[in-house]
Specification:
Elements lengths: L1 H17 L29 H8 L6 H15 L14 H5 L11
Helix pairs in contact: 2-3
Keywords: Gibberellin signaling pathway, Signal
Organism: Arabidopsis suecica
Family: Belongs to the GASA family.
Length: 106
């Protein structure tokens, strides 16, 4: 039962981040300064909440998005730019998966 709940939450989170109503920023110049350097290890642990706040700003599943984003950021010290996609900017963030093989990070 717990596995089913975890799979449902992760699936919902992924669906919400992929098909949210939020719009991407049009240029890197508009992005918060926290995202301009990019790349793995580019953030300090204390910068994760702000980066994740922005990353999860367009989803309707904010609470699980923030939880998993902060967990991933604290491990990888990186959050992809924008509110969805761009995971190639952070290989650790992109490649961290659940036991079922799905992506762990939003």
């Amino acid at each position: 039962m717990m596995k089913l709940i975890v799979v449902f939450v992760i699936s919902s989170l992924l669906f919400a981040t992929q098909f949210s109503n939020g719009e991407e920023l049009e240029s890197q110049a508009q992005a918060p300064a926290i995202h301009k350097n990019g790349g793995e290890g580019s953030l300090k642990p204390e910068e994760c909440p702000k980066a994740c706040e922005y990353r999860c700003s367009a989803t309707s599943h904010r609470k699980p998005c923030l939880f998993f984003c902060n967990k991933c950021c604290n491990k990888c010290l990186c959050v992809p730019s924008g509110t969805y996609g761009h995971k190639e900017e952070c290989p650790c963030y992109n490649n961290w998966t659940t036991k079922e093989g799905g992506p762990k990070c939003p």
